[in-house]
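Figure caption, in words: inputs first, then the predicted bound structure.
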Amino acid sequence: MGLKLEDYTGSGTFAHGIHPPGHKNLSQDEPVRVMPTPDTVVLSLHQNIGGPCEPLVKPRQTVAWGEIIGKGTSFVSTTLHASVPGIVQRPVRMTLANGRHMDTLPIKTEGEIPSGRGLWDEIFGGNWPVTGLDAYEPARISLAINEGGLVGLGGAAFPTHVKIAPSDKKPIHTLIVNGCECEPYLTSDYRLMVEAPWPIITGALLAGRSVGAKRIVIGVEDNKAPAIAALKRAAEGTGIKVAVVKTKYPQGSEKHLIQAVIKRQVPLGGLPSDVGVAMSNVGTMAAVARAVIYKKPLTHRVISVTGGGIVNPSNVLAPIGVSFGALVDFCGGLTPDAARMIAGGPMMGFAFSNPGTPVTKGTSGLTVMTRDEVKAGEETACIRCGKCVDVCPMNLVPTKIAMASRHQDIALSRRYNIMACFECGSCAYTCPAHIPLVQLIRAGKARVAVADRS
Ligand code: SF4
Ligand code: SF4
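Bound structure (iron/sulfur cluster present):
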């Protein structure tokens, strides 16, 4: 690809941020376990940022594993596939872990798919070419990604074919592949980098080609030495660079990883493409390789099932649409002091209570905290210590934004740049007065968004 990497200038970190305990040791050292196919999966028709899917199947219809069951309703939307073979059930409206109410298609499993190591090999094994990829035209790559139903697997769930589409208006010079996984507890990306670096490299080469990037850099935090070594070995001779960045939260945020890797600042309210960068997560890259090379859709993903409230914390390869409760059972159940389930990690995840809630494409983990882990102090008045300001990676003043939100003052919220907050949780984590800064800011953002639409 003629990649030129000499102008790599990253400082390896960003200003502000925090160092919460990682708790990654709970699940990082064991190979990914493959879950047996569950009896039922429940597939939300809206699993991505952007538009939902419309169903292409009817109740009682038989579907094959990987068959298309929903198609996107807009450009910023994507395809949905059956993650198990079986019989489509009546649509049901369900509350997802993020609190949104969505139409879902349940599928009762009937039929066989590979199991155990066979399923792992089917998805991540095989031959992953790093040469001859010029045969894949950018438009063909983007189409295959959309047909494969890919979204960002790091949690954002933005449709991948949109993210890595070539653009004349904002040319992309660098593709950054995000392997930071800075969220405490979660280790699914880490295990994937260690156990399946080859599809990540092939996917990165294809995505870089699609977006027209001159260079490709994989950013990994310096607490993941085995992953760094595995990626470097797999990337040998391809021109892809592995950039080791400092372990700090939220290093995996797009804007802060760009700052760490190429020392460019994305303008407030801007996008990575404003500084010539496209970014995608390591898991997404592996899915890109499979969708483009083998024309196989996204039906399964690796999920961390972890926290002090899980008997056997593990990383699990499971079908999209499996229930969180089934994941818990597969990992030995809950400990007696399990107190809170969080979809994702404790900093940016969503607490929920129904174990029947289904996993979506963007679910990177389930963290179950114990009573001791969630013990929060009682909220007291702000003591104006300024700690929340010191840690905010967006240079915001969280205490003032939260106050504006508490007073439902939309104009003031806007003046304090509330929409620039990406809800990383660093301010709330550090606040000695236990003020629920993120909840307040989240509510304020929703108010501003409603006001903007009206
Ligand atoms: S204000 Fe937003 S971006 Fe800043 S620390 Fe708090 S949650 Fe993170
Ligand atoms: S960290 Fe908490 S107590 Fe300190 S200024 Fe911010 S909101 Fe106030």
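The mean pLDDT is 93.
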